[in-house]
Amino acid sequence: MIADNIRRISSGIASACARVKRSAQEVRLVAVAKSRTAEELKEVVEAGIFDIGENRLQEALKRRSELSAVSHQLSAVKWHMIGHLQTNKVKEAVKIFSLIHSVDSLRLAEEIDKEASKINKIQDILIQVNTSGEASKFGLKPEDSARVTEQIGKLKNLRVCGLMTIAPITDSPEKSRPFFRQLRELKDRINELGTVNYELRTLSMGMSDDFEVAIEEGSTMVRIGRRIFGN
Predict the structure, then answer these.
(1) 112 pairs with which residues across the strands?
(2) Does pTM top 0.85 for this prediction?
(3) Helices 38-46 and 57-70 sit at what angle, rounded to 10 degrees?
């Protein structure tokens, strides 16, 4: 079932890319693990998806250990922190995550930089932007993003790869489009300003219900759980 679901999602990614004349190779699929078992994640990896997203550090540590017991491909897996990261969890987070999607303050970035420097690592990160303005969501205000990104971009052991957002839950994927478009325009503006001395390329946006719209608006990374694993 999981392999079939991934094929359907890959087809959706390809269709969305074709509609806006993009290559499907530009978009990475991150499988959101949440409460899934090691056996389910093994199926994901065997289907050719090596990017796994976790909302909590402790769950990532547990699943990483469990997956190592059932799959010989653990070394190929890239772990993504997609949930809110507390500063007291940073030390362990930098040891296992390839990409932290949810950096939403200079203070958090400085803590990640400090811990990454201790293990001689350049940590890839994304800046989380609250494009919807919802109080329930983490992320920088759009109007603060360029300034804070510039400050974070000066930290030596971080690489700001791009931006991330979570669209509001709606009854139609089309209603997510303005929020995805806003993030793309913000990335373009930051690049035009030369806020960071290298180009931001990654846009992490789009989930199970709205990933095709996100891709049409420039997403390079979609975070999908339910469509892969079922309810």
Answers:
(1) none
(2) yes
(3) 70
CATH of the domain at 182: 3.20.20.10
Express each pLDDT in 84-116 by its tens digit.
Answer: 999 999 999 999 999 999 999 999 999 999 999
**Percentage, residues of the chain above pLDDT 70:** 100
In total, the chain counts a number of residues equal to: 231
pLDDT in tens, 5-61: 999 999 999 999 999 999 999 999 999 998 899 999 999 999 999 999 999 999 999
Q: In angstroms, rounded to a whole number, what is the distance separating the alpha carbons of residues 92 and 211?
A: 30
At 94 the three-state DSSP class reads: helix
What does the alpha-carbon distance between residue 124 and residue 112 come to, in Å, rounded to a whole number? 10
Bridge pairing between strands 51-54 and 78-81: parallel
144-182, pLDDT tens digit by residue?
999 999 999 999 999 999 999 999 998 899 999 999 999
What domain range includes position 145?
2-229
Q: Which residues pair with 163 in a beta bridge?
A: 127, 203
Domains in the chain: how many in total? 1
What type of residue sits at position 139?
A: G
Distance in Å from the first CA to the final CA of the chain: 12
Distance (Å, whole) CA 57 – CA 61: 6
